[in-house]
Task: structure prediction
Amino acid sequence: MSFINYSAREINCKLVFYGPGLCGKTTNLQYIYKKTNPDSKGKMISLATESERTLFFDFLPLALGNIKGFKVRFHLYTVPGQVFYDASRKLILKGVDGVVFVADSQAERMEANIESMENLRKNLQEQGYNLDQLPFVIQYNKRDLPNAVSMEELNQALNPKGVPFFEAVAPQGQGVFETLKEIAKQVIMQIKKGT
Amino acid sequence: MPDPGLIMYEEEFKQIDAELHRLHQQANAKVTFLVDKNGQLIAAVGETENLDTTSLASLTAGNIAATGGMAKLLGEKDFSILFHEGERDNIHISLVGRVILVVIFDQRSSLGLVRLRVKKSVEILSQILQRILQKVDQAKAPSGTGGGNKEQPKSPFAEITEDDIEKLFG
Ligand SMILES: Nc1nc2c(ncn2[C@@H]2O[C@H](COP(=O)(O)OP(=O)(O)OP(=O)(O)O)[C@@H](O)[C@H]2O)c(=O)[nH]1
Ligand SMILES: [Mg+2]
Result:
């Protein structure tokens, strides 16, 4: 749910990175944080366990620039991917403007991907959102690993509607900004439509 | 889609800012600020120079969301007030509809005083927020149905181009 402030001349949008445990959501934000110049970013906050698994969320505020004289701010969040953190995932989804689904390309994570995608759809539905009407992008991460499934197979399993998708190797940044740019574009276009 | 996005206009922003100033002063607070339930900062007043208000806003919303989730599990409606006591600073958080009022204070004030002043501010802020919602509704009503859009200028976002978006990423 975007927040348009005519007084401060700002638009704020919330983007959520979703996906199964260890698929690379936090790594995406870390890379974006690392590569963004200091004026454009706030502090990155990670509420994580001692073993660096996301416990509640990661948060990264980005102010990329201006559109029509309004400062555009994106608030990036990741959810905790581990199955038993479902209650927290639901909370993070509240007020979302756009979703990036990060899939783990490894063959043995196929089931986890599918389960997480179904979980996303269900959790959105509970709050009155329809995934098919929301700005939405899929990122196939971990393309560098030898056991990565083919793109055709991934799309078949996870992308029946044919939304925009990207191949990624998040720790090296491959595909990371491409993904961010696409979701940002969709969200801004949504704001345009809504006004 | 559920809730429409929050929109803040100049007039109400000034009123909110004035109320936060009043509260800041009357409660002897260090900082008062208002956050959207989704973690977006609306306005902040006081000693904010060395304070990461963006992060605080996000964590406040996370905090309210988490305790709200707990309330639901207990069959409670919501915990509308949260209080965290520190060695030096304390933080008082209250729900005002879809926004959150936060007061940070130290030994120059007291919980009793903050509570008292917050109560009044919550009333006033609720009224302001109510007016914003009405305005947003009016602006959305199709013209010619009486609602119309007299006061607000035409949205500047109607003419966004792909080019504008490209430029964001330099
Ligand atoms: N080889 C390889 N490793 C990756 C890639 N992306 C992430 N990783 C590694 O996978 C591990 C988990 O990454 P995270 O970003 O913490 O995963 P997450 O999705 O945030 O996991 P949760 O917080 O549990 O939901 C880390 O050790 C990363 O370095 C990738 O593209 N290739
Ligand atoms: Mg994580």
Observations:
- The pocket of guanosine-5'-triphosphate (ligand 1) is lined by residues A 19, 21-27, 53-54, 78, 80-82, 141-142, 144-145, 169-171 (CB under 6 Å).
- The mean pLDDT of chain A is 95.
- The domain at 3-194 of chain A is CATH 3.40.50.300 (Rossmann fold).
